[in-house]
Amino acid sequence: PSDAQPVTNRTTTDYAVGAFLLASAEIYKLTGTSCTGGSAVSATIHQSPASLTQGVPVAFTATATDACGNTVAASPVWTCTGGTITASGVYTPSSIGTQRVTVAFGTITSTRTFTVQASSGSSNLALRKPVTVSGEQIGNLGLNINDGNTTNRWSAEQMPKEAVIDLGADYQLDQIKVFPYLNRSYRYRVDVRTNAGTYQTVVDRLSNTEAAAELTNAINARGRFVRLTVVGAGNYTGPWVSIREVEVYGRSLSAAARDLESEALNIENAALSVFPNPSQDVIFVQGVKPGEKISVISREGYVLFESFENAIDISGLAGGVYFVRAGERVQRFVKK
After folding, report:
1. DSSP string computed for 45-57
2. How far is 213 from 182, CA to CA, in rounded Å?
């Protein structure tokens, strides 16, 4: 071996007898040890993407190795979050944000974590939809905020100021992008409400210090009306709110219902169970982690109610198909 190279059973054929290495003025005897392989001790997913695109399938592969580094013949079991994955490792992301794919060879696992971006082929739901603002400057009107042109802007003097975009119908919303003028680190909040609901905060950047041409916010909400409220800025002391564009991405509620069906079929969700199923009055949810919130969701994707109790009264629901969600796991149940 060369200087500083460790002596192992791979660098000498006489490791069973021993090897000697001269280091400085002392001699050390290195006793070789044999390698016993066979069982898998580690797993490796070969792909490590930083980001994926919503709706675009990606094939993952993996191998298991023993203590000697030899590949072990074993069948992988794949699980995921934010989408579906086949037995052969083909992952189709349906939800944006941070997601993961995990492979298991028995008790040996490996995980890849990545960011799922909104599909570039999907439409901007806010584009040229009706908008109302709490103020505007002549020449920099409110309608500029969602006209698809980032070279103009909406401006209004004195903060706070707000702009409300009417998407025209309820959607499952995944992402909101805000394009500040001159990369100002505006401090803002985004609230969303359904056609018949009340506003819920989905983005809170009231302490924002990020100065960028584009501020991307991953969300998970249903809504028709999107309200942006700007209260100040970190790197700008003037009185003007100036936003070049706001984009809102999502999908129809019918598509969201299909996504819930897909999630409920994911093998990882087997740890979550609902019984009795079908049920008429009370369901019991098993496999919930301590402190985890349980949501009851309609097929259209609406969160009907939430609970931290494993026993949930569903007597007030109409008959049909519903879902329970705990963390990132989903299961389907039927109300009689």
Report:
1. ES---SEEETT--
2. 7
Cα–Cα dist 19/41, whole Å: 28
What is the dihedral angle through the alpha carbons of 273, 276, 282, 288, rounded to the nearest 10 degrees?
A: -10
Rounded Cα gap, residues 241 and 185, in angstroms? 11
Q: Model's pTM, two decimal places?
A: 0.54
- How far is residue 303's CA from residue 288's CA, in Å, rounded to a whole number? 18
| 269 phi/psi in degrees, rounded to 5 | -80, -5
Distance, in Å, from the CA atom of 108 to the CA atom of 72, rounded to the nearest integer, reads 12
Count how many residues are written for the chain: 336
| Residues whose CB falls within 8 Å of the CB of residue 69, separated by 6 or more in sequence, listed in order | none
Of the candidates 281, 284, 275, 271, the one whose C-alpha atom is nearest the C-alpha of residue 315 is 281
Cβ atoms of 98 and 112 within 8 Å: the answer is no
Nearest C-alpha neighbor of 185 from the set 207, 158, 216: 207
pLDDT in tens, the chain (336 residues): 445 555 554 444 444 444 444 444 344 444 455 666 678 899 999 988 888 887 777 888 999 999 888 999 999 999 998 888 888 888 888 777 788 999 999 999 999 999 887 765 467 899 999 999 999 999 999 999 999 999 999 999 999 999 999 999 988 888 899 999 999 999 999 999 998 889 999 999 999 999 999 998 888 788 999 999 999 999 999 999 999 999 999 888 776 666 666 666 665 566 789 999 999 999 999 999 888 899 898 876 777 888 999 999 998 888 888 889 888 788 989 888
Residue pair 246/181 in contact (Cβ under 8 Å)? The answer is no
